[in-house]
Each structure stands twice: as structure tokens, then as C-alpha cells.
Amino acid sequence: MPPTRQSADMTIEEKIAIFLASMDEQTAAAVLQQLEPEVMARLVTVIRDLGVVPGKIRDLVMQNCLREIHELGQAVFGDKKLASSLLVKAIGEKRASALLSDDNIRKEMPFVDLRMADPEEMANTFMKEQPIVTALVLRYLPANIASDVLRRFPGEYRKLVVMNLTTSNMVPSDDVIAAIEE
Hints:
About 65% of the residues lie in helices and about 0% in strands. The chain has about 180 residues and is an all-alpha fold. α1 crosses α3 (about 35-50). The protein is elongated and about 65 Å long. It starts with 11 loop residues before the first helix and ends with a helix. The mean pLDDT is about 75.
């Protein structure tokens, strides 16, 4: 790519090539590894022919990329396949398999299934429980989800749950957590 070329005149492959060339090699290789072989081959060819890209052009390409990511609402997609792949690369297949077993995930992250539940439904369900049980479950949820559920409770119940959240230092056993999850 000639150094005088503007980012608006570049192909998408050239922009991606600049983006990849701006990363450390291990990260860029991990990104390339996720692509279809034809796409990977095209990008490697473009990277090979890239030459010197002025900092101004590189910065513009990076800003555009970040702007597009931001416009997507900073959404990312994670799933079991991605988690497994990342973990295998990080610690090896044997250790990753043991760590990713459903029993280990449940022990490490109790109530993980509730993270995707509707806050209104959770609030309605929790209203049937003792405030201490509700407080225990909310303690395991991310703050934004717990607060969303908490604000849906009527005043007196919310007050009791908050009191339990702030005063109880009880660390329940795995059996208790499992029973509550059931």
C-alpha cells in the first residue's frame, strides 16, 4: 500500500491487515486462527504487501475500528465454544477439560443461570422466599443484576433483603448453595 493513500480509499482487507499488524503477534495469530482459510490467506497476502503505513493512517484505521465496535453497542459474543478454545490455549486441553466440567462451573459460579433470567420474574420468585435466602442469591449475582432485581421488591421486603445483604457474614456450604439452586 503506498504511504500516501488515505484510509477512505483502502479495502476492508487492507484495514483489517493494518489492524492485525498493529497487534502483538500472538494476539494477531489468535485472531487469524479463527478465520476461514480463504480469508486468512487473503489477509496474510495483504499484510505481506502492506509495507510502511504512516502512523496517521494507522491511527485513523484503529479509530474507525473502535468507532464501529462502539456503534455495535460494545456487544461481544461469548459461548461455550469460545470459552473452551481460550482455556485450551491458555492451560492445555487436559486441564481445560477438567476446569470446564459442569460441576466445577457450578461450584465456582453459583446461580450462573440466573444471570440471563428476567429481573421481574426473579423478583416475583424471590418474594416467595425468606429475605435471607434472597440476599444470599443476590450476593452471587453481578451488582447490576442484583440491583435491578432489588429495586423491584416492595419497600418492606427490600429493606429486609438489604439488611441481610449488609449484615450477614454467613458463607453457605456447597450443599446449601446446591439446594437453593434446585
